[in-house]
């Protein structure tokens, strides 16, 4: 009885917390078919409109709403403390699948999944320890970010004229170090003599939503001679694009976007973007659940790399003047080698590689 009262109290708090910031949204599907599943998406810091990670997840939900017979809703918690409340709210309302978008949902998903064994939960970028056994109703959606970062690193190494490139991370944590590790390896694969600068915006989740800090770090690296920067920092990276747009006439400043195609952020200054296909992972998971809401065979760890179309880089007509046919041919050869297993991309940065 006491446990039920505690869960009821938590649910009431969830309603109050989310209603207080007015962040509840719902989208019904106009497929003409009866709903086969109810699915919910809970965003992390930055929410919709971050032009990066969360927006990519939302594109996956949007596609599912267009193509699948599902009912879908999304929530934008007011702050990090509301993560558990938000996923608990959807679970208590009888949703078949609840997805937490971001690594910070790891503990919350594991906690709530125990209380709702009949609900499937998924977590994007979930932390899974080597010997950890996940609950049978939990899906960990993980990516080989280092593989996509390797390709944009190669693009940076081929495009740089100063032989100095930079990396800007959001929160200094193992996940973002994967981006840096792949980027460094890609740069060095095509430009062994290149110097790589590195900086992080902070050590807390707020480091992913500080464009002012991002601009400051970008200007510092441009000032030290870098002419190409890669950011893996959420909306903090918007400051890097601003720094590139402020380039004096005749000065070369290029930025590589992350998670989503960010070409539009600074046309003419965006070399490419490392596209982390959170939308693919979300859509594939929603599709599986729509076909059989109570299935459990999709639980466990699901990994998306180059071979699974989980990561990629942008190369099209908009940046053809920056990534020409010869450069693209070299990058595509590297892609084939990674998919075939001939190149093993590192996921950790060696201490000796870290530039001051």
Helix-strand layout with pairing:
Layout (H helix, E strand, L loop, with lengths): L1 H20 L2 E4 L9 E6 L10 H15 L2 E6 L7 H10 L4 E5 L4 H10 L4 E5 L13 E6 L1 H15 L4 E8 L2 H17 L4 E8 L8 H13 L4 E5 L5 H8 L8 E6 L10 E7 L1 H14 L8 E5 L6 E3 L11 H15 L17
Parallel strand pairs: 2-3, 2-4, 4-5, 5-6, 6-12, 7-8, 7-9, 9-10, 10-11
Antiparallel strand pairs: 1-3, 11-13
Helix pairs in contact: 1-3, 2-9, 3-4, 5-6, 5-10, 7-8
Task: Describe it.
- The chain contains 10 helices and 13 strands.
- With about 350 residues, the chain is α/β, with parallel strands linked by helices.
- Strands 1-3-2-4-5-6-12 form a 7-stranded mixed β-sheet, with helices on both faces. Strands 8-7-9-10-11-13 form a 6-stranded mixed β-sheet, with helices on both faces.
- Helix 3 (about 85-90) packs parallel to helix 4 and helix 5 packs antiparallel against helix 10 (about 325-340).
- The protein is globular and about 60 Å long.
- The model is unreliable at about 1-30 (pLDDT under 50).
| Span between termini | 57 Å
Count helical runs: 10
CATH topology descriptor of the largest domain: Rossmann fold
Query: From N to C, what is the helix and strand string?
Result: HEEHEHEHEEHEHEHEHEEHEEH
Strand element count: 13
Summarize the main sheet. 7 strands, mixed
> What is the percent of helical residues?
25-40%
Strand order of the largest sheet: 1-3-2-4-5-6-12
CATH classification class of the largest domain: Alpha Beta
Q: What is the oligomer described by this structure?
A: single chain
Structural class: alpha/beta
The CATH homologous superfamily of the largest domain is termed Response regulator
Low-confidence stretches: 1-32
Shape: globular
